[in-house]
Amino acid sequence: MLILSIESSCDESSAALIENGRLLAVETRTQTVHQPYGGVVPELAGRSHLELMDAVVQTVARQAGTALTDVDLFAATAGPGLVGSLLVGISYARGLATALEKRFRAVHHLEAHLWSAELSAGELPPPFLVLLASGGHTLLVLVSGVRNYHVLGSTRDDALGEAYDKVGKLLGLPFPAGAEVDRLAAEGDGTRFAFPVSMNDASADFSFSGLKTAVAYRVRRMSNREIREQTSDLLASFQAAALASVLLKVELAMRVSGARAVVAAGGVAANSQLRLRLGNLAAEWGVPCFFPQLQFCGDNAAMIGYLAWKLETAGIRDGGPQPVRPRWPLELLGAGDATP
Ligand code: KG4
Ligand code: ZN
Fold first, then answer.
1. Which residues are placed with Cβ below 5 angstroms of ligand 2, an ion?
2. Ligand 1 neighbourhood includes 274 CB (under 6 angstroms)
3. How far is the CA of 315 from the centre of ligand 2 (A)?
4. Which of 26, 178, 193, 304 is the most exposed place for a label (fewest CB within 10 A)?
5. Whole-number pLDDT of residue 321
6. Do domains 2-114+300-335 and 120-295 have the same CATH topology?
7. Does the beta carbon of 266 sit less than 6 angstroms from any atom of ligand 1?
């Protein structure tokens, strides 16, 4: 089965071709128009998707040496995400499916992240625990099989990636700041500033806004020169507190869930310290740890096409005609039906 998939839920315009679960080609363009604004501007994101969509689809078709008429199934992210952006990808994929008299399938963005490590690692041993951390979401999910998900914890305020972006912005880094914070923190001393490790309680929920505020108050008391000289120490100390909190929750979830593997997914899964520390924690528990390849941590269409294939082979039918869903909690995905 040949699947052409599209991802356009936020600021990545991406297309991929997947044949029987194997990735043939993927093209992802991260929109640069948002950089001056310190965050994604929904209207600009929608317009950029309109400009880029044709190019990314034509690129994967060319790379894979495939004609669109050979595609069996068109798939696109239906939510959660920015409504204007989702509409561009969904309309494009649906339009192609209708014109070529092929099937269309809507995909849940977070569900696709859950399975993204399989793109390179092959089938993972269920039940496995996924830390899904991006700019918009931070979740701990126990995956026991396709459409068998149990959300153990989520963030009560900011997402982890959002905290990286906001702290980076405080220190003058361009949006999105996560990768640059990762790089600069590696040069700093993570014990230089004592920031609070949040949500040190019995729940598997996260909270990062207090940490971000603590960094903001500390920075406010420093001169420009001190900030300049101690940027990497500030970032390393922020990261130490943020990841200490994340690891506490992963450990708690491991204790209650009986997971046989640990997986990280989403944009923040590209973080070098997170990869290192999560790997060490999994080794302590005696379970394997899996990460998507760097290009599949952030938003991409390869994971959308891969999940579409997994759902098809599991015999799970599509929910039929549906609008896009800007809000679409993972918990509402019912077995056998994409439309709750
Ligand atoms: O999954 P993603 O591409 O988009 C969303 O669905 O949000 O994640 C983007 C987020 C941004 O907040 C970005 O700063 C963060 O992932 N990020 C990182 C790193 N690379 C990307 N955060 C920490 N360390 C990184 N290396
Ligand atoms: Zn995402």
1. 134, 299
2. no
3. 25
4. 193
5. 67
6. yes
7. yes
Q: Is residue 135 within 6 Å of ligand 1 at its C-beta?
A: yes
Q: Given phi > 0 = left and psi -120 to 50 = alpha, else beta, which region is 148?
A: beta
Ordered alpha helix ranges (H), 188-300: 209-220, 224-257, 272-285
Residue 64 token pair: 């894979």
Low-confidence ranges of the chain (pLDDT < 70): 320-321, 334-340
User: Which fold, 120-295?
Assistant: Nucleotidyltransferase; domain 5 (3.30.420)
Ligand nearest to the CA of 273: 1
Look up residue 124 and give its two tokens: 């993972």
At 295, list the tokens: 């290009």
For residue 113, the ligand 1 atom closest to its alpha carbon is: 1
Q: Residue whose CA is closest, atom 14 of ligand 1?
A: 178
**d(Cα 309, Cα 164) in Å, to the nearest integer?**
33
**Topology of the domain covering 2-114+300-335:** Nucleotidyltransferase; domain 5 (3.30.420)
Does the reported pTM lie above 0.90?
Answer: yes
How many residues are recorded in the chain? Answer: 340
Using an 8 Å Cβ cutoff, are 135 and 117 in contact? Answer: no
Q: CB-side exposure of 155: number of CA atoms within 13 Å?
A: 23
